[in-house]
Amino acid sequence: MKAGIEPMDILLFDALRFLASDAPFSDSDFINKIFPNGLWDLIIQLLAFLVMMGVVIFLGYKPIKKMVAKRREYIASEISSAEEANRVAQKAAASADAVIAEGKATALRIVEEAKKEGETARSAIIAEAEKEAAERKKAADADIALAREKSLQEVRSEIVGVALAASEAVLRREVNEKDNDALIAQFVDGLGEGK
Q1: Count of CB atoms situated within 10 Å of the CB of 29
Q2: Which residues does 14 contact at the CB level (< 8 Å), separation at least 6?
Q3: How far apart, in whole angstroms, are the C-alpha atoms of residue 57 and residue 112?
């Protein structure tokens, strides 16, 4: 092996030579290229492999590990945020349920109070109507009694007038006022006894 030429370069050169040639590639050529025969070739390949692994770890693994850690933190924070939002939503739902239950209880209480007030108002209206009806009946009875008394007075006056005319005719004389009053009183007393 020449100094300054890397084992990978040799493999690459052999692969290009194989592709350019018409000679078949045998299994022993392939095994000799992958597994070197010399100790120095093995050490060089091992060192090249370790350097390549170091580069991969430094350039690939650590940044990927950092990205995975950031992603893990982001997911954990999102999960905790979602759990907190869920707790807040459950508290809000419980609070809303309590407000709804309180509203229903208040509505039922208001309806019951309105029913009671309606019954009280109904009773008051009925009592007022009964009182007014009793007053009207009493007033009507008083009007009837007054009308009856008035008609009795009118009948008495007519009867007195008729009685005076009859007494004048019977007596053929003029009755004075004193006799007239006595006859009227006698006649009215007779009417009063006839009731």
Answers
A1: 13
A2: 29, 33
A3: 79
Could you tell me which residues come within 8 angstroms of residue 9 by beta carbon, excluding any fewer than 6 positions away? none
* Contact yes or no for 183/175 (Cβ under 8 A): yes
Per the structure block, which two tokens stand in for 81? 């945020």
Q: What does the block give as tokens for 99? A: 């407000």
**Tell me: the pLDDT tens digits for 7-58?**
677 777 776 666 666 555 566 666 666 666 677 777 888 898 899 988 888 8
Query: Quick one: CA torsion of 106, 108, 112, 115, rounded to 10 degrees?
Result: 110
- Does the predicted TM-score (pTM) go above 0.70? no
What DSSP letter does each residue of 43-87 carry, written as one string? HHHHHHHHHHHHHHIIIIIHHHHHHHHHHHHHHHHHHHHHHHHHH
Average pLDDT, the chain: 80
Rounded distance, CA 120 to CA 52, Å?
A: 99
Cβ(188)–Cβ(167) below 8 Å: no
Residue 194 burial class via C-beta count within 10 angstroms: exposed 0-12, middle 13-18, buried 19 and up: exposed
